[in-house]
Design brief:
Radius of gyration: 17 Å
Strand order of the largest sheet: 1-4-5-6-3
Shape: elongated
CATH class: Alpha Beta
Number of strands: 7
CATH topology: Thiol Ester Dehydrase, Chain A
CATH superfamily: Hotdog Thioesterase
CATH architecture: Roll
């Protein structure tokens, strides 16, 4: 009888966002660019949970620019809504890809979804890395992800 080891849990984090008035556009809905700000807050919470926040990223000798992003706007976000924004690591072999889900905290209704892709670039040379550097993967392993 063979036993399969349980797959490690995916790295994810969920944050709450109260939509502030200053995020609205002239039509009284959240301006589309602010969705990426909400994504960023959730992604930051995820990498903090494995001890790889901005200080560790900087010390690693790499910069981690977003090289691709996408957002599907399902329903408009409005002032005073309370949102849940979940970031989940989807890929870390050649790049770092997070998916996002924005939902209404009260109803659970999906309001937006998207993803971002980051690549590692050597800070000293500006050279793009073709695989994710071991320093990030080690943080994932240490935290069972």
């Amino acid at each position: 009888m063979s036993r399969c080891a349980a797959a490690p849990a995916k790295l994810s984090a969920e944050i709450e966002v109260d939509v502030p008035f200053h995020d609205l556009d002239g039509m009284n809905v959240v301006w589309h660019g602010h969705y990426y700000k909400y994504f960023e807050h959730a992604r930051t919470a995820a990498v903090r949970s494995i001890g790889f926040d901005i200080e560790q990223m900087t010390a690693s000798g790499y910069i981690w620019p977003v090289i691709e992003s996408h957002c599907r706007y399902i329903e408009s976000l409005r002032y005073g809504m309370r949102l849940l924004v979940r970031a989940t690591l989807e890929d870390s072999e050649y790049r770092v890809k997070f998916s996002y889900l924005v939902s209404d905290q009260k109803t659970g209704k999906r309001l937006a979804k998207g993803y971002t892709v980051q690549a590692a670039v050597e800070a000293a040379t500006g050279r793009l890395c073709l695989t994710t550097p071991p320093v990030f993967l080690e943080h994932l392993r240490r935290h069972g992800r």
